[in-house]
Structure formats: C-alpha cells, structure tokens
Amino acid sequence: MKRRLLLSTGLALPALAAGAQSLLPDRAIRLVCPWAPGGTTDTYLRGIAPIVAKHLGQSIVVENRAGASGAVAMAWLKAQRPDGAVIAGITDASVRIAITQPVQYDPVKDFTYIATTGTLNFGWAVLNDSPIKDMADLVARAKARPETVSVAGGGTPANPPFGLRVLEHRTDSKFLFVPFAGGGQMINAVMARDVDLVYDALGALAGVIDGGTFRCLGIAAESRFPRWPGVPTAREQGFDVVTDLPCGFIAPHGMNPALTALFEAAFLKAAEDPEHLVLLNRLNLGPFTRGTAAYTRHVETTMRDLPAVYRAVGMLPA
User: Fold this and answer.
1) Which fold has domain 5-119+244-312?
2) What's the pLDDT tens digit per position in 116-155?
3) Hey, what's the signal peptide range on this chain (predicted)?
4) What is the 3-state secondary structure (H, E, C) of 155-221?
5) Which end of the chain is flanked by fewer CB atoms within 10 Å, N or C?
C-alpha cells in the first residue's frame, strides 16, 4: 500500500555548491517508509522529512511500502536508479533480517548508506519501590536464583527479546521470561506485582517512568537517553548489551559520491536542528547521528559480527 504526503520545501544550504545542487532531481524526492502508516517509524519519517527538505532545498514525498520487516521495500529500492529520486528511511531491523532469513538483497553491497539521525532504545524498568537497585543487582539475583526473577517482554516463550537473551548469555544468568502482546499489558503486570520487571522500548515505558511509578535500571544502547540523563547504559554498568535500532537513510547502490555528500550534509544538519530534537523527544527516540562513512561501517560490522551473537543466544543454528 502506498500513502504519500507532500512535505514542505526550504532554501538550500548556502554552503552547498551550485554544481552539487544541480545533481538533485527536478521533482520531489520520494522517501520510502518500509512500514505501514501510523507506526513510530512512519511518524518519525514524516516528521523529519520537512526538516531535511529545509536543509536540502528540495521537496520530499513520503510513501509507504510495507511488508516483511522492511524487506519488501529494501528489495524494491535495490532495483531503482541511484539518481537521488528515491531514498528510503529504515531501521536496523531491515538490515538484521538478512541474517535470519532469505531476502532479495545484500545489505552491504546493494545500497548507499547516507546518514543516521535517531534510534529506538530499549531498557529494563522496575517499580519505583522495587528492591532491585541496578543492573548489577538484577544480574546477581538472577544468577543466585535462576529462573525466578521474572521479566515481562514482547515475544513468545521460545523467542524472548534479543536484549534479554544477550544479557543472559554474557552474564551466565537465567531469567523467567513472561511474554506479553503489548507494552500496556507488560506495565500492568509489573504494577500488579505479577512480574518483577519489564524489558521494552523506552517509548512504551516513558509515561510510567516520567510519572515516577517505574524506575529505569539501564538502557541497552550506545549512549544515554537524553530524557533521562541520570540513567546509565547497561554497558556503563559493566554489561555489554547494545540492542538499539538506529534509523537511517539509504539509496540504491552506486549513487554519485557528490550527490551522496549533498544528502549527507542535509541529513546531518537536520539531525542537529532544534525541530528534530523536539521530534525525537516527542516520539521517545534517542539521538544517533552518523555520516556516510560511519553508517556504512556500522552496517558492515553488524553483518560481520551479529551472526555469531545470534548463534550464541540460540537465534541461529550453532
């Protein structure tokens, strides 16, 4: 299904050379969202697109090509011309899916990676009066009494959240995973004291943490969540668990380097724009700003290293 929204145009960055600016198509750029309308990624792309347009000097049209965790849009984008007329906004889910199932594209070889601007973060949270003090205390309790510390999360009994699997594997601990269909159910279960804590996206937990009912033990991300600067990451507490889902922008492989640089500059400017910071806060997303070279390395590293992690935690055959 396609849904389009024409987004506003602004003046080009003065620093962009006229020659480079002429590489842009003479019509609105199509920004493809691999997810259905109304979700977090779709809302984020529709929010950042006019900010990017302001810095790029070109209109942007957002359209949806949903299916298969982003694989449908990725396969379609691969077949497009790398002339700047079509780009896509993705999360790492559309990259990682190529590790666990067959897809019609190679994440490393088939795309030009422009920039990242934000990330979906996950974390562990308990009731404010919980005796569990921090991540070290949480792990110590799970190791002392395996499968007694209960964790609410999304998934199935046989398929707990990736972050919980990694924490168990790297600490030789074992939690009692209790699956729920949605964040509201998880929160209610913790509030009823049916389970000890919840592991979920920070956006689903923001209301109860901001309201003081819950307390965040740690964040499974590379950096702290700006909304709660006092909450350390799991890595800062000695546990190497990073499971955030960066949101980035890509084009078909083979884009003119000068055109790539033009897009990169606009997205990096947009990432620091005050309007974008408000958007991140409103959607409970964290900042994650990487340019073309760093984003490309990030994808290459993910595809090189993550399969071994998946095998170690049981998500791939050993």
Assistant:
1) D-Maltodextrin-Binding Protein; domain 2 (3.40.190)
2) 999 999 999 999 999 999 999 999 999 999 999 999 999 8
3) 1-20
4) CECCECCHHHHHHHHHHCCCCEEEEECCHHHHHHHHHCCCCCEEEEEHHHHHHHHHCCCEEEEEECC
5) C
